[in-house]
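Incident review: delayed structure delivery

Summary: a single-chain prediction request sat in the queue longer than the usual turnaround. Root cause was a stuck worker, restarted by the on-call engineer. No data loss occurred. The affected request and its eventual output are reproduced below so the record is complete for anyone auditing the incident later.

Affected input:
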Amino acid sequence: MAAVLVLLGAGRNFGVVGGSALLVASVPEAVRSEVEGIGDVAMSLAAAVGAPGGGLIAGISDYRTLSFVVTRRARRALAVPMRPSGTRPHGGATRDHTSAPFRGPTVRERVLHRSM
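Output delivered after worker restart:
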């Protein structure tokens, strides 16, 4: 059990460091600290909600149910970054087409504009 927990911790740390490095490398230098702070807060909020939620589900039911719930949520969360670039979640037109209504700048466009 101790070996499994060590591997779990190491994997988590590699994921956090790697994800943070990818996030920082993907934004302009002028806004890196702000974006990294937002990422850290988002990760902390997810842990603050996930830990008690997971304990509640495991306490009411069992680990099999917890595993099922977490797997479904992870699939949903991973579907967004794996979506092809330029598409919308509902499958509508991209911003380059005149048929799509303009909804304002994306977060990425705002960050890039602020750094210029």
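Verification: The chain has four helices and no strands.
Action items: add queue-age alerting; document worker restart procedure.
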